[in-house]
Design goal:
Belongs to the STXBP/unc-18/SEC1 family. This protein is of the alpha/beta class and 690 residues long. The protein has 29 helices and 14 strands. The strands form three sheets. The chain has a seven-stranded mixed sheet, sandwiched between helices. Strands 2-1-3-4-5 form a five-stranded parallel sheet, sandwiched between helices. Strands 10-11 form a two-stranded antiparallel sheet.
Length: 690
Amino acid sequence: MLTMEGFTCFPGLMWEKVLSKVKKAIVFMDDKCSENLHWNGGATSLLEAGARNIKQFSSFEAGGDNEAKAVFVVSTLLKGRTADIIKDIISMSHFQYCVVFTAVPHSIHLLANKVTTELEGNPVFEQFEEKLCEWMGDMNYTAEVMHAPVVFAPLSQQFLLSPIFSQLFPLLPSDLESINRKRPEKKRFSSLLDVDIHSLPPELQIQIKSLASALNAMFECTNTREESFAVGPMSRLIAGELASHPQAKNRRKAAPNKASIVFIDRTLDLTGAVGHHGDNLVEKILSALPMLPGHTTDIQVDMLELTNLQRTPDIEGVLAPGCLAQNQSSPARSLWETMLVAKQKEAVMEVRGKLVEAASKENLPIKMSMGRVTAQQISSYAQLFKGQTEAVENHAGVLQLALATAQTLRHPALTRWDASLAFQRLLLQALGDSDLAAVLKQVLPLIKSACGSEGSEAGSGSGEEAAVLGADDLLALLVFLYSLSEEAHPGEGEEAQEKVERELIGALTLLLTKQTQLSPLLQSITGASSPEEMTMERAHSALEGVFETLRVLGHAREHLKQLHSVYTPSDGVHQATYRPFLKQVLEEIFHPDRPECPDIEHTSAGLTDLLKTGFSMFMKVSRPHPSDHPLLFLFLVGGVTPSELRLIRDTVSAHRPGAQVLVLSTRLLRPADIPQLLFATDRLVPDIGV
């Protein structure tokens, strides 16, 4: 019988192909593949397979005089910028044997080179092999180019992440305007639902087709026939590509295993994505601690507490940071899985329990204390390992997770997190009683308060000062509010709303010009790299664009017939509540009566399915349903939060105990990611390395 283990093992199997070629080689790897490997065994797996060294994929790197073999692992097409970097590295080295792995299949290389016919063999890869020999300086040297779908990373036994597609995000109405601008007036699309894949820019087509191809490779590897379903315009495009994938038709005829895959657009519920939930430890760790360079998921843990070093400017870069990805140790792996989906209290107690267990194994003098777990207590337990080299090595994974927990629990950013949570709860209640303009007025004092606090860069300050929300927090709060705007009471009309919005833009413009340090988000939105460049005109113009995007967020569910609300207003007895969209979708899927939900569209894979759909209008033919098969995949296009991972687990347990549900997504979200993806990401033209 097909189980989830087969799928969580799939990413490792794909890396085996790479590992089989790295013996005695120097390995060059781009950031996206490095992040993927980080969760798939890490650099250790390459070194154990015989690699001599691992270097960044950069024109400023090269092999040494005595290094004859190189392996390149890239997430992009082998053309443009990617090809130039490979050429630069080879030209400055003395390689005689080069192997290139790309996560993009040959069929998509043909598409990128505008070849529409199916060709025998892999001509694009063969041509690139010739170029490699040319760059090495001898056509008799050895070059190999091949596809390895190193796309998924197992973050837990129930969750696969795809860092390569971390910038893939559902389109917004502003993107539709950009698409329509290039089309004749009579052929313009009236809604995002009408857009077909061929109308998209080539870069986005390549990303969608690459994702469909990676999913097809996973189903092929596990002998699975999938039924695809979609909720949302972008999901429909991806599901359609997977359904019509040329290699999938043969696989589906013979595959003995069956599964359903439901794609869901993140934009259908941005409320949950920017919500500062009070009860998930990993969400807070991801928001409080600095990210690992080049990564979108993992963070840096300060390991100084376990050493005898003093905190001075000189030790910057001397001590390697810890992280959340724990591939080597099973106690650390199981602790991470608990932290990811448990409530904060349970997770923190589990951290303490694992530390006590590790200290006991090493016979360290631990003083047990019951009751509430504090950051200080976790730190004091971790410091028992200080100077005990062997003990630190034996329990490095648990110690990294413990220190990440302690550093987060005492981080000043948590005060702002709690403040954001409190404001979101207040605004949620206000929406049921007031129109949007009146609720927006309640945000104005928060912006003015931030303007009044000195050094008002998000992330600075402590105590009372830190409770003042920074510019990044305020943008996330506005996304939260506008994502629910259609749920507000009808009010005085657009004029009143526009007046308040002008005031908000004015107050935010002033706040941006007062920044003493610019966060990466503010730099991306405004294009200013320093506070000196942040002029009134630049800030005002950028914020007008932000508000244009905000105004359309509440309309994302307009096309849905049934699942069009994520808000339950107060009835006088109960407070207004947020109803997660994911929970509603799962309740529909696992409903005992198996109702047909018009919003969960089945994507037909061919003529048989179309005939079934046609006949069902005249006679009783059962149409495919997501709960038909023993295994369900939920693919969240645009990201999933740790809170939602727990929500999925709890909802499935309540409605279908024992059901196997595997979550896939493009990224593990922090609230701060959503403003970046909405206001500072080119969704139509993603960077594909060309």
